[in-house]
Design a protein that fits this description.
By secondary structure, this protein is an all-alpha fold. The chain has helices at residues 5-19, 33-47, 51-68, 72-87, 93-102, 110-119.
Length: 129
């Protein structure tokens, strides 16, 4: 189902909204995640054909599955991107750790998380004393 451009765009929109829930209300661009989702829902309501809603349902399921399959490095990189987008700058590594914990990752002690950051290829994020 994700072979079509629209389905792929909806998948990306769903993933974006899962990471940035407040973005569902942003409609400034035709490519805004919230707008793409709303357009699909509107089209289905008007036509009476729920096929777009079924695609959105599959996108949600796929996004959740993708998150469950993420490696520790993927999660750290995603957390880095989330924090960086939220603050508009490169975050401190402790902020990335806090984001990981907020997203439900296991409690991370400082030493282990520093090692995980290095293993994810983000050693530059840790400022040396």
């Amino acid at each position: 189902m994700l072979r079509s451009t629209e389905a792929n765009n909806l998948f990306m929109a769903v993933r974006h909204v899962r990471n940035f829930p407040e973005s569902i209300f942003k409609m400034e661009s035709e490519y805004a995640a919230g707008r793409m989702i709303l357009e699909a829902v509107k089209r289905d309501i008007i036509s009476g054909d729920p096929s777009g809603l079924k695609i959105i349902q599959k996108c949600i399921e796929a996004a959740v599955l993708r998150e469950e399959e993420q490696t520790k490095a993927d999660r750290i990189v995603d957390a880095l991107g989330n924090v960086a987008n939220r603050i508009g700058a490169i975050p401190a590594w402790l902020d990335v750790r806090d984001e990981c914990e907020i997203k439900g990752y296991p409690m991370l002690n400082e030493d282990n998380f520093r090692k995980d950051i290095e293993a994810a290829g983000l050693k530059w994020l840790i400022a040396t004393p």
